[in-house]
Design brief:
There is one protein chain. The chain is α/β, with parallel strands linked by helices and 428 residues long. It is 40% helix and 9% strand. It is built from 17 helices and nine strands. The structure holds iron/sulfur cluster. Iron/sulfur cluster (SF4) binds next to loops.
Length: 428
């Protein structure tokens, strides 16, 4: 594993890391300091290097792609016949410092397969982070993966050096984990998450008492769920995410469309990765975190899966038309956030602007409110902006149609197949 030249190992181990999406932003802010190298910014250290569009920012590598476990969905599983490679902790430290000094990266995302045992592997990861911090005085961003089943003492040590910790749940239910990842019982993943959550809270409290108290994973923790490898509904996935945000205060749950990288008759034969479903889940996740929605409002027993034709807020609004239209000059901020097409920024601007003036369509446009979808759900000064019957069939056609174009069937199909990018802008 160490016999290949360093460049080849870098190629193998960076390529193996690209399926882990749980690292797309730092969320950590730390100024530079005398005698130390680097700083972190709350955003902007996410660079896309991969040809297939996946975020493989930072120096995103595995310590090793050899693994004693055999998770069915994983490229690095024990039973896959692929070239294996590994770095020593010193090599990872040298690469990180080298790349940082050349301005190629702003931090390190270090994940790994499980070598020998969970504890041994965790110790290797910690050795990298410890040397970066204590020997190299590296003050930049470090995201470390936790190894399922590692000793709680090692988990506690990892958080002293890393900005962010993550451990991937991967599959939404214990049933699916037992089927596809039999070496990783659910508790081996959830217990460290609980521990990290508790230590973060403790560290925050300690630092309120004294700024000298040590930090613990100041950028929080994240996880990843694979979408489409197992039969769980979007409702199960979103409900799980909601629980993780609420009870364990996760910073992010990432969703990764299942890509069949190894053949196994326990896995579904998908013609293409369910990227649109992944996108809709990100939109629903956004609604949970920033728009005040609860999982049970978005999906229920009668609607267990997100509608691929609409963003989840439009889908919710179509099922709750009795709540619309709302008057833009009077509606509470929380109500405005529920209008399809009105994002956090627009809702804030509306609330601010209407203190001084009465808002009509012209004023909304001047505020930068995009009315493409919102107009069907709003009145301004008592005048309905949609120009159609809210409860008629036209509404669905208009929501599906690209702006200012006749809603021809082929266009509808094309539009339905392509994700809109509203989750990126936040204007859902
Ligand atoms: S433990 Fe991680 S690296 Fe190993 S097979 Fe499972 S998912 Fe892959």
């Amino acid at each position: 594993m160490f016999s290949l030249p360093l460049e080849q190992r870098l190629e193998v181990l960076a390529d193996s890391a690209k399926y882990d999406v749980s690292c797309s932003s730092s969320g950590s802010s730390r100024a530079g300091k005398a005698g130390a190298l680097g700083s972190t910014a709350a955003s902007g250290i996410c660079h896309s290097w991969s040809a297939d569009g996946r975020c493989i920012s930072l120096l995103k590598i595995l310590l090793t792609n050899a693994c004693i476990y055999d998770c069915a969905y994983c490229l690095n599983r024990r039973s896959n016949d692929i070239p294996r490679a590994a770095f020593t902790p010193d090599e990872v430290v040298a690469l990180t410092m080298n790349f940082y000094r050349r301005n190629y990266i702003e931090g390190l995302f270090l994940s790994t397969g499980v070598l020998r045992s969970a504890d041994y592997t965790m110790e290797q990861l910690i050795a990298v982070a410890r040397r970066l911090r204590e020997v190299e005085r590296f003050n930049g961003y470090i995201h470390l993966k936790l190894v399922p089943g590692a000793d709680p003492l090692l988990v506690a040590r990892a958080g002293r050096y890393a900005d962010r910790l993550s451990i991937n749940i991967e599959l939404p239910s214990s049933r699916s984990l037992a089927l596809l990842a039999p070496d990783k019982p659910r508790e081996s993943v959830i217990a460290p998450m609980r521990q990290v959550s508790g230590l973060i809270v403790e560290s925050r409290a300690d630092r309120k008492e004294s700024r000298k108290a040590p930090r613990f994973a100041p950028a929080g923790q994240s996880t990843q769920l694979i979408v489409g490898a197992t039969p769980e509904s979007d409702r199960e996935i979103i409900t799980l995410s909601e629980g993780l945000y609420r009870s364990l205060e996760l910073k992010r749950v990432y969703y990764s469309a299942f890509i069949p990288v190894s053949s196994d008759n326990r896995l579904p034969a998908l013609p293409t990765p369910p990227l649109l479903r992944e996108h809709r889940l990100y939109q629903a996740d956004w609604l949970l975190r920033f728009y005040g929605f609860a999982a049970h409002e978005l999906l229920d027993e009668a609607h267990p899966n997100l509608d691929m034709r609409f963003d989840p807020k439009s889908d919710w609004a179509l099922r709750n038309l009795q709540l619309f239209p709302v008057e833009v000059n009077r509606a509470d901020y929380e109500v405005l956030l529920r209008v399809p097409g009105v994002g956090v920024r627009s809702a804030r601007r509306i609330v601010q602007a209407r203190r001084g003036t009465r808002l009509g369509e012209v004023e909304l446009r001047k505020l930068g409110v995009v009315l493409k979808r919102a107009r069907y759900f709003l009145t301004a000064g008592g005048r309905y902006l949609g120009g159609i019957r809210l409860d008629g069939p036209q509404l669905i056609e208009r929501l599906l149609a690209p702006a200012r174009r006749p809603a021809r069937l082929d266009q509808l199909e094309l539009f339905a197949a392509l994700p809109d990018l509203s989750a990126v802008s936040g204007e859902l």
